[in-house]
Amino acid sequence: MSKTAFLFPGQGAQKCGMGQSFYESDADSRAVIDCASELLSLDMRKLLFEPNEKLDLTEYTQPAMVACGISMLQAVYKTGLRADVCAGLSLGEYEALYAVKALRAEDAIRTVSERGRLMAEAVPAGQGTMAAVLGAETPLVEEVIRSIPKVWIANYNCPGQLVISGETEAVQAAAEALRSAGVRRVLPLKVSGPFHSGLLSEAGEKLRPYLNQICFSKPSIPYAANFTGEYVEEETKIKDLLVKQVSGSVRFEQSIRAMIADGVTRFVEIGPGKTLTGFVKKIDRELETVNIETVEDLEKI
Known about the structure:
Layout: E1 3-8, H1 20-25, H2 27-40, H3 44-49, H4 58-78, E2 85-88, H5 92-99, H6 105-122, E3 128-134, H7 138-146, E4 151-158, E5 161-167, H8 168-180, E6 185-188, H9 201-212, E7 223-224, E8 231-232, H10 238-247, E9 250-251, H11 252-261, E10 264-270, H12 275-283, E11 288-292, H13 295-300
Parallel strand pairs: 1-2, 1-10, 4-9, 10-11
Antiparallel strand pairs: 3-5, 3-6, 4-5, 7-8
C-alpha cells in the first residue's frame, strides 16, 4: 500500500496573503492565527494579509510561516486527508513536528519566534550570505568548498541543486572556485544571513535553553529530520536535532529518498508555493505531487 507524506516549506516561500482563504473560511484556521497574535503580542493577521516589509524579516517570517502552516492544517484534517510521514524544509520542520503531534501549536509558534530573533542577531548585516549551486554533482561541490574556510553546504535540495552559505567573502571565493571547476551556474541569493552555516552555531546553542523548557511528545507517525535526513520516532532526539539544525545542512533530498524507500509515493506540500514538490519531481518524476496553498486547492483534492 502506497504512503502519503506532508511537506512544509521554509523561509523564502512567504508571500503576502498566504493562508488568507483558510482564515476567512474556517473557524479553526482563524483561531490559530488569532492565538498567534496573542502569544506574540503581534498582529499576525496584518503581518500575513497586508503588504508590509516585516514579512521578509527573519524574526517575523518564521512565526508567520509556522502559524500559517498550522492554520491550514486545521482545514486539511477536516477533509480526512492524513499523512504517514512528515517533513519540513528548515523552518518547516516545526510544522512537521506539530503535524506528527510531537509539538503543541503554541510551543511551535513561540519557539520559532525566538529562533528567528536569535538567527537575525547571530551575524551582522553584510557579513554573511548564501548562493545556489545549480547543475553540479554533489561530490564536486563538497570537494571544492572543503579547502575554503567559513563556507558550508546549507541545503541538499535535489539532484543538481545545492545551496552554500557562510562569510560573504568566503562564499564569493567558493563561487569563483566552483566556476573554475566547471560549474556554470552559481547564483547569489537575496537573504538576510548565512543560514545553515557554522556561523549560526552559537545561535543554535542559545536556542537550547528555550527548547529545554518545552515538553515534546512521542511522534504519532515518523518525521524526517533536516539534520540527518532520516526518520525520527522518539521524542528524546528532537531537541538536539533542532539545535543542530540551525547551523547544520538541510538534507532534504536525503529525507525524500528515505521516504521513497519506505513506500511513500504521494507528496502533499502544504503552504505557499510549489518549491518542495518541484524538488520531489527532480528526484523522481514518477512520484505523485499535490500542492495545497488555498482553500480552492483543498477542494480540488
